[in-house]
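REQUEST ID: PR-0412
SUBMITTED BY: lab tech R.K.
PRIORITY: routine
TASK: structure prediction, single protein chain
INPUT:
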Amino acid sequence: MRVVESQWWIIDLPDEWEAEQVDDAITIGDEDGVGVIELTTLQKENGKVDDKELREFTAEIEEQFGAGQEIQVADLSGYYYCYKDGDEAIREWYLRLDDLLIFIIYSCDEENAGMDDSSVDEILSTLFIKGEEAEITE
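STATUS: complete
OUTPUT:
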């Protein structure tokens, strides 16, 4: 098992999955090419992200695909959506904790829907949010 680390979080990655930085997101794909997980993190400059702000990000998806379900992933809370869009099966998580917004999207071809669900859930269960690191002084 390997670790993928961003400025804000750490996640365990099974050996058969690879990660790379693509623009502002970290993309994780499995070796058989079935699906891709994309994690994007935004940090609010002043204050904590509240539910109203999170819901502004989910408004368009709810308009198209219906209400999401409330979910907890690690220390994050938010909303989960699962839907089909064209020939793609998509799972999305819109999550918040303190001043962080984390968007996670898993997508694959519709014919492969569900194939990686347990692996994706296992990977996300290892998500660890870094705390404020104390400054070391001598």
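NOTES: Residues 133-138 have pLDDT under 50 and may be disordered.
REVIEWED BY: pending
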